[in-house]
Amino acid sequence: MAEISSGTLTGKNLHLSFGPNHVLRGIDLHVEKGTTASVIGPSGSGKSTLLRVMNRLIEPDQGDILLDGKSVLTENPDQLRQRIGMVFQQFNLFQHKTVVENVSMALRKLRKVPKDQARVQALEQLDLVGLRHKADARPANLSGGQQQRVAIARALAMQPEVMFFDEATSALDPELVKGVLALMADLAKSGMTMVVVTHEMGFCRNVSDTVTFMDAGVVVETGSPDQLFTAPETDRLRGFLSDVL
Amino acid sequence: MDAFEQLLKTFFDWKAMGAVVPNLLTVGLPNTLILAVSAGIIGSVLGMILAIMGISRNPLWRWIARIYTDIFRGLPAIVTILLIGIGLGPSVRQLTGSTNPFPLGVLALSLMAAAYIGEIFRSGIQSVEKGQLEASRALGFSYGTSMQLVVVPQGIRRVLPALVNQMISLIKDSSLIYLLGLLASQREIFRVGNDAAANSGNLSPLVAAGILYLVLTVPLTHLVNFIDNRLRTGRPEKLQPDEAAAVVGKGA
Known about the structure:
The complex is a heterodimer of chains A (245) and B (252). Chain A is α/β, with parallel strands linked by helices. Chain A has helices at residues 47-54, 77-83, 99-110, 115-128, 144-156, 174-189, 201-207, 225-230, 235-244; strands at residues 9-18, 21-31, 36-40, 62-67, 70-71, 84-87, 162-166, 193-197, 210-215, 218-223. Chain A has 9 helices and 10 strands. In chain A, strand 7, helix 6 (174-189) and strand 8 (193-197) form a beta-alpha-beta unit. The longest helix of chain A is centred in the last third of the chain and has 16 residues, at 174-189. Chain B is mainly α and 252 residues long. Helices cover 79% and strands 0% of the residues of chain B. The interface between A and B is medium-sized, with 34 and 24 residues.
C-alpha cells in the first residue's frame, strides 16, 4: 500500500432522529490512529447511519465529531469527506464512467490533478487492488467483487485519513467475499484508520483492534475482539452472537 | 377502374408531385429543420432548468415548475402557437421593430417542448439510484457538482429514447407554424405542400410533403429502438477468453 497518513476519529454523544424515530441515542465511538474498529449489531441498530453521521452525509442532531482532536462540525462537510473514504454495500460505482475514470474523477475535479497524471495515479491504485487490466472497462462488466475492489481504489485515491466500510461484502456472492476481506485486512495492516460495519465475524475477530456492539441506537458493549467474543457481558450481545456464530 | 384512376390521380399525380419537390427540398425542408432543431435545443435547455427546479428542495421552485408544466402540457399546441405567435407580435414589434413571426413560432414550439422535455429529464434524473449521489458526496463533491457530474449525465442517458420521440413530435408540430402567416421563403414542408395542392387543385403535392415528413421521422423512430436496445443490453463487447469461459458470477 502507498504511504498512509491516518488520523484519530472520535464521535461523542451522537444523536439523530428521523421524525419520531430516534435512530442514534448518544453514541460514543473512538478509533485510535492506525487501528481498525468493527461495528456489529442486528440490522436496524443504526450502524450504517452512524457512519453517515460521522462523515456528515447526515448531520447529527446533537454531539460532536473529532478528527485528530479537532471538531469537524464547523468545517465544510465536503472538505471533511475528502479526508474520509467510504465504501458501500452496493459499490455505487459511477456506471457512466470507466473503471479508471471512477478512480481518477475526484483527483481531477477536486484536487485539480491534470488528466494524464490523475490517470497514472488511478492506475497505481488499481494495481494495488489487482485490477489494472480492467482500467478501461465499464463497471457493469465487472463482477461484484471486482466492483467493490474498484470502489476501494476510488476511495483510496484521495489518500484519506480514515476509511469507512459499510457492509462492504454483504452484497457479494460467497466466493467473492474472501478477496475483498483480504484487501481490507491488508489495508488495516498498512496502518489505515478504519471503521468497519460488518456481519463478517471472522474479520471482526481476526483483523479489528476494537469491536463495538450496537443495538437500537446505543452502544451496548465495546472492547477488544477477545473480550467481546469470549466474554460478552450483556445478554443482548450473547443473544446476538449466538444468532450469528 | 375509373374510381381507382381517380384516386391515383388525386393522391399520386407524379407531375404535380415532381413540380413541388424542388421547393419542398430547398425551402420547406430547411425551414422545418430550423424550427424543429432550434425548438428542440431551446426546449432542452428550458426543460433541464424545469427538471432541476422540479426536484429542488425549495417548494417554491417545485411549484413554479409544476404550474408551468401543467399549463404548457395541458394546452393544445394550436392554442399555444396562436396565443404566443399572434399575441406577442405587437410587443415584439414595439421592442425590436421586427414583424417577423418566425422567431415567435420557434418560441411557442420551444415553450411547449420544454414542458415535455422537463418531465422527461426529471423522471430520468429521479431514476438514478440514490447511492450514486451518496457515493459522489462521500468523495467530497458538493450537491451541485454531484448532480452535474454523476446524476444528471446518467439520467439523460436513460431518457434518450424519450427525447428522440419528443424530437419527432417537434418535427410534426412545426407544421402548425403556418398559422402565423409566413413569407414565401419561410414556409415549412407542410405549407409548401399545401400551397402547391391549393394551386394545382390536386392533393399530390401534400402527399409529397407527407412522404418527406416520413423520411425524417421514420429513421428517428428506428433510432429510438436502436438506442433502447443498446441501453438495455449494453454495448456489444469483445470478451476476453477467460471471461468468455467463466460467465459465472457476472451479474446481469
